[in-house]
């Protein structure tokens, strides 16, 4: 924040006054990014500025959720907030008509299956509450403040332990019988790719062949950090992720695809290779936007997830 004149003390006073004014005007949002190993609790403004942030380890829900509620209650008592956004690991039930709405589905995370995350976290606070996947939240954050500003159709792919896809069409995350699970679409393998799939459900899905867990199987004990860009291990990864992108382009035509997560962040050469393979795969049938790269890194980096919960809160308030 920049002021034309005045002492440091005066600047501090003005900052406090502005924060109080923004809080009083209903601009504050509370957000929870519920992850498999940690939960990031964020108190921020509608424009993405963060006022306070706390991280809580993801243990058993009986341990983790009361701590999060206490954090929310403290913010409620000291600042107030106009909306709450919850961006959670999945699978989750997003249909408001379902008896299981707001609950975690058949996760492998011990103790969390069937937990009413939305109900428990929102019950003490009479404000609009948004509930969505963590990757949909990250996609909304990139659309609000990152690499997809001004776009209504966008896909956010995270390649980590698993593969998640946040898919936004006409400004809203997709809905239907469930949230996007494009990490589990089945893809044709390269002819010489015989490494077992990591996925216990599918022998040939994207997550089974190109996630961080799949890469570990392919490396067979080697460290990814020491693998050069021309190593053959990257070929099936690029192929599989390009097939995912081909499917996204043909299904919903996002204006841009961002791919993040630990695997791609550590190997930035993959993005250009994925886009080149995607263009070759489309073979002139569909043309990608000519302005700049189409497959990009998320602009918000590791802030996309936490800010995603604020974006989910913004959407909840806008549609209340």
List the secondary-structure elements in sequence, H or E: HEEEHEHEHEEEHHHEHHEH
Biggest sheet layout? 5 strands, mixed
**Low-pLDDT stretches:** 1-8
Strand order of the largest sheet: 3-2-1-4-5
Tally of DSSP β-strands: 10
Structural summary, described in words:
With 320 residues, the chain is of the alpha/beta class. Helices cover 37% and strands 17% of the residues. The strands form two sheets. The protein has a five-stranded mixed beta sheet with strand order 3-2-1-4-5, with helices on both faces. It has a five-stranded mixed beta sheet with strand order 8-7-6-9-10, with helices on both faces. The longest helix has 19 residues, at 234-252. The two termini are 32 Å apart.
Can you describe this structure in just a few lines?
This protein has 320 residues and is of the alpha/beta class. 37% of the residues lie in helices and 17% in strands.
Features:
disordered N terminus, 320 residues
List the helices and strands and how they pair.
Elements: H1 8-24, E1 28-34, E2 38-45, E3 50-57, H2 61-78, E4 83-88, H3 117-122, E5 129-133, H4 134-145, E6 154-159, E7 163-169, E8 172-173, H5 206-210, H6 212-219, H7 234-252, E9 257-260, H8 262-265, H9 269-282, E10 295-296, H10 304-318
Parallel strand pairs: 1-4, 4-5, 6-9, 9-10
Antiparallel strand pairs: 1-2, 2-3, 6-7, 7-8
